[in-house]
User: Fold this.
Amino acid sequence: MEDIKDKNNFLRIFYTYRPVLLVLPALILFIIFFIIPVLSMFVLAFDKPVTGVLDLQGEWTLKSFLRIYNRSLYFNAAVTSVSLAALASLITLIIGYPLAYLIAKTENVTRNTFLMILVLCAMQLDMVIRLFGLMVLMGDNGLINGALMYFNIIEKPIGLMYNKLGVLVGLVQFSLPFMVLSLIGIIRGISPAVVEASRSLGATPNQAFWKIIIPLSMPGILAGTLLVFAISISSYIVPALMGGWKVMVMPLHVYQQIAEMGKWQFGSAIAVVLFCTSLLSVIVYQRVAIRIGGGRA
Amino acid sequence: MSKAKIKEVNELGTLVKIGSGIALAILLIPVFIVVLTGLNSGDHLTFPPKGISLRWIFAFFKSEEFLSAFLFSFGLALITMTLSTIFGTLAAIFITRFSFPGSQLLRALFLSPLILPGIVLGLALYIFYVSTDIGLARSYPGMVIAHMLVTMPYVIGTVSASLFNFDLNLEQAARSLGASPLTAFRKVTLPNISNGVMAGSVFAFIVSFGQFDVSLFMATPNNTPLPIALYWSLRYTFEPTAAAAGIFAIALVVISMLITSKLVNLQKFSGVKFD
Assistant:
């Protein structure tokens, strides 16, 4: 009797909580291979740095972080990372806004879908392949220098790549689709009636644009800029190829410290700094995104 | 209403058109250059271009380095897509159907690989694999797990969006007519969200196929995805064979996005996330 009751109890619990089985595979995967690894990386960053040793020393210290702060090599890399990402966000905004505006205001379904497919293809295509094209364009023997020399405008190739300019162009190419997609929704949400009203009150198209449309797109502008900042600062491949390891940024140091020097703790510390910088802008981004969502509903 | 919109575009037309032209040029010119390089007849693409030939396409089919990397990435993307779609769809159903304390947190957890820098996630996994010594470091299963983490947010995002749009009453109607929960789900709900599931899996495929950041710490000479192979070759030279491989990757992306545009309404798609 007891057995049957227990069994029934078990079955009832099983049926009540059965839906949890749906999420269990994904949850277990994320706990083991996402939460634990990221936490252990944080732990490692605060451990005593010993070259070539991954095992936990158990001596907590801020040595690695102080080293990033004190050594100009790493401090400058952080400054370069932040300034390049900030500049990329600004340029991407200026270049991306008109395209987002065009897509948002295109009513023709076929044309709209076509433009969206172009943007999505550009976004989803492997970044290394896009950089291949950019490098053939901007290299010393590349198309731009080749054309300029062919028409005798310059005598020697001008350095467009393997410097900060090259990295910046690469970052803009990389993040432009993200900016456009962040802006489209908010621009589409601006009621044409508001613009009409300002026009009927005597505003020129220019005034209507700067005084009505731009302020109303501000949440999208902010969200897009922060998103682009977060993904630009995290990019490894763009500075590695377009900067030719001459423009040192944080992601390059992370790889170098770990893969080439075996400095696990120090590499993790740089990764933690990188993670926190990008997380900070993402948190602000989500605050903004939530406000957009709330405003719309 | 729509007339006003058209008028607006016309009034700001020139500037918007010029700006959009510049943006599209920046997005697409590098892609065209890859296609040109892969199809040019010279040893590398020069200005002015020499001529068109298929020699690099043939070279790609004979290339040990790039063809095997391409096939490796293709297989990896298929496995990743399958697993991510199954895990992700089930999780999305749970998240959208059941609200409980912490459900928002759970949702945020599943979407968070989107915002974690890829190189940081790759490093964290690599540290975990090496330090636990469970045979996942520089292994194929280890790489599949890494790719699942970065592709599942796309599946969960797309499937949740289509579940939100689905009227739950339809499923309940089926239940009240005597269908078992599983039958009701299979016959009523699944057909209605299948477009979202398929779109999510297409995204999972293409994100895995083009994935560089998390693969960086996982790749070995035996396990080399295409982006990594291209990266190693690009560090030293611009090989047209690599561009030929790129042409096939471009074709794959274009096909995937055309399929996506048939499955979900791209006009409703805004922001990087799908909801």
In short: Chain B touches chain A through 103 residues (CB under 8 Å). Residues 1-53 of chain B form one domain. Chain B has two domains: 1-53, 62-268. The radius of gyration of chain B is 23 Å.
